[in-house]
Design a protein that fits this description.
The protein is α+β, with helices and mostly antiparallel strands and 155 residues long. It is 34% helix and 24% strand.
């Protein structure tokens, strides 16, 4: 199965950098069974893309209608996918993967500190306690078969 994870991160301070990771998020699944791209399937967007906006149009899209059963459907809870990874690969591998994901968040947001920090200080010079700005980011992460996370985009 091919899927990506949407993980929400709250930025509440620039200097020092302060972030919080929301405990749950989304997992979006491709609606066709994934196969390595070749001449015959390379144009199958339902196999190679995990975008909800695209896959909801596929006849194979499965809508979850039970909020108490969040591990069913083409769009699932992040926690249900993480639970499945932990069950299949073990707690140690799961924690290692999560630390790599957190590392992506920190590195990505650290890159913004010089420019965003300057904007915050010029707009809010009296913010001595670093408490007058916040932003919620949606990080889209893809996990490969070795549990290596890759950043797709940040919204």
């Amino acid at each position: 199965m091919k899927y990506d994870l949407r993980i929400y991160v709250l930025l509440v301070g620039i200097s020092p950098l302060r972030i919080y990771v929301y405990k749950d998020g989304l997992a979006r699944f491709a609606t066709e069974k994934y196969e390595k791209p070749n001449d015959k399937n390379v144009d199958n967007i339902y196999m190679h893309l995990t975008n909800y906006a695209i896959n909801k149009e596929n006849e194979n899209f499965v809508k979850n209608r039970d909020k108490n059963n969040d591990d069913v459907g083409s769009k699932r809870s992040l926690q249900s996918v993480l639970d499945g990874i932990e069950l299949e690969c073990g707690s140690e591998k799961m924690e290692e993967m999560q630390h790599k994901i957190y590392d992506i968040f920190i590195k990505c947001l650290t890159l913004t500190v010089p420019s965003v920090g300057h904007l915050v200080k010029s707009c809010q010079p009296e913010d001595i306690e670093n408490q007058m700005c916040f932003e919620v980011f949606g990080f889209d992460i893809m996990i490969d078969q070795k549990l290596t996370p890759y950043l797709l985009e940040v919204n």
